[in-house]
């Protein structure tokens, strides 16, 4: 014998919710045909473990597609109304079937349901507005990063091309006047590079703050203190090697970032950005260390930046002591950044491989 389960119902403007009181329901069949719903399942209901069945003739047309979800305690059915609106009752007959009752857990009267719709609408509008704001911020950020990367790319390309052409034309002689011909452009690019520390610190890009600080402070120390403030260093060939090694990576790194701004990549460029630091970084650090070592006797002689001691002690502390400490810091910085770049490389090529699989 088939039995009828208890069915609770509630409505919204768009849909009907039915809750069928059946525990551990199995073999559930829910059919909607010509506005009538037929339910059949086995489960544990008011009359114990049995086959349960019911039929409902809806008051108004409904859509034929129906969704149902069973939990351990009940089966929840959602039927969509053909036309949005409020029904004065669920079924066509005026006397409701005995097994049907309002679902007070979900029950709303018409005005409450309208309020719910309004709230939903407001929530949707708020979400849309915040998405618009976010999109605005993203496009502003992308525009800013693109322009920044473009300026740096142009700056470092000018430096690299200029030095290469001069090397071809003037040969070894070009090594001695790098500072005079290139330093203004390098000052500009390296001052701008401070933006990279801010970008990392404020989360504009996903780079590490410490590696960015080491990179920018390290280079600017060499550029402004060792080269910029010591005239005797201006015509040393080491300036050529430092500037050339710095710009050799940047002519690949910045275009790589420019493409990244538009979620695009060119595989060769990605490979170059994440590979050529392997020889360049140690060589660049070595060239910087040579510059520091060459500047030590000059600082000793000129007493530039020396720290005066109280009169009772006499003399002053030469800046060269700071430079000795800096040489140690350089190798610590080199280690931190090599490790960081190695991790970035591994991450980049690992994710790429995974995506390809
Ligand atoms: C306070 C104490 C200071 C003490 C100082 C001590 C001195 C230490 C001296 C150390 C020696 C320095 C030697 C050095 O000067 C020598 C040379 O430079 S030689 C030349 C070779 N050099 C290089 O190869 C280094 C080049 N520089 C860098 O790679 C970066 O500056 C570095 C911070 C080291 C690493 O970059 P980052 O952490 O940003 O890694 P990614 O490039 O992989 O970027 C991560 C993600 O962020 C996105 N991103 C980053 N920047 C931008 C941007 N401008 N525009 C758009 N997108 C950007 C990037 O796309 C990555 O995104 P995703 O993760 O989605 O792929």
Automatic annotation (TrEMBL):
Transmembrane segments: 138-161, 181-202, 209-227, 239-262, 274-299, 319-338
Organism of this sequence: Monopterus albus (Swamp eel)
Listed PANTHER family: VERY-LONG-CHAIN (3R)-3-HYDROXYACYL-COA DEHYDRATASE (PTHR11035), VERY-LONG-CHAIN (3R)-3-HYDROXYACYL-COA DEHYDRATASE 3 (PTHR11035:SF20)
Coiled coil spans: none
Membrane topology (UniProt): Multi-pass membrane protein
Protein name: Very-long-chain (3R)-3-hydroxyacyl-CoA dehydratase
EC number: 4.2.1.134
Enzyme class (EC, first level): lyase
Catalytic activity field: a very-long-chain (3R)-3-hydroxyacyl-CoA = a very-long-chain (2E)-enoyl-CoA + H2O; (3R)-hydroxyhexadecanoyl-CoA = (2E)-hexadecenoyl-CoA + H2O
Gene Ontology BP annotations: fatty acid elongation; sphingolipid biosynthetic process; very long-chain fatty acid biosynthetic process
GO CC aspect terms: endoplasmic reticulum membrane
Pathway(s) of this molecule: Lipid metabolism; fatty acid biosynthesis
Keyword Protein biosynthesis part of the UniProt annotation: no
Domain CS stretches: 2-91
Pfam families: PTPLA
Keywords: Coiled coil, Endoplasmic reticulum, Fatty acid biosynthesis, Fatty acid metabolism, Lipid biosynthesis, Lipid metabolism, Lyase, Membrane, Transmembrane, Transmembrane helix
Function: Catalyzes the third of the four reactions of the long-chain fatty acids elongation cycle. This endoplasmic reticulum-bound enzymatic process, allows the addition of two carbons to the chain of long- and very long-chain fatty acids/VLCFAs per cycle. This enzyme catalyzes the dehydration of the 3-hydroxyacyl-CoA intermediate into trans-2,3-enoyl-CoA, within each cycle of fatty acid elongation. Thereby, it participates in the production of VLCFAs of different chain lengths that are involved in multiple biological processes as precursors of membrane lipids and lipid mediators. Catalyzes the third of the four reactions of the long-chain fatty acids elongation cycle. This endoplasmic reticulum-bound enzymatic process, allows the addition of two carbons to the chain of long- and very long-chain fatty acids/VLCFAs per cycle. This enzyme catalyzes the dehydration of the 3-hydroxyacyl-CoA intermediate into trans-2,3-enoyl-CoA, within each cycle of fatty acid elongation. Thereby, it participates to the production of VLCFAs of different chain lengths that are involved in multiple biological processes as precursors of membrane lipids and lipid mediators.
Gene Ontology MF: a single term: very-long-chain (3R)-3-hydroxyacyl-CoA dehydratase activity
Matches recorded under SUPFAM superfamilies: HSP20-like chaperones
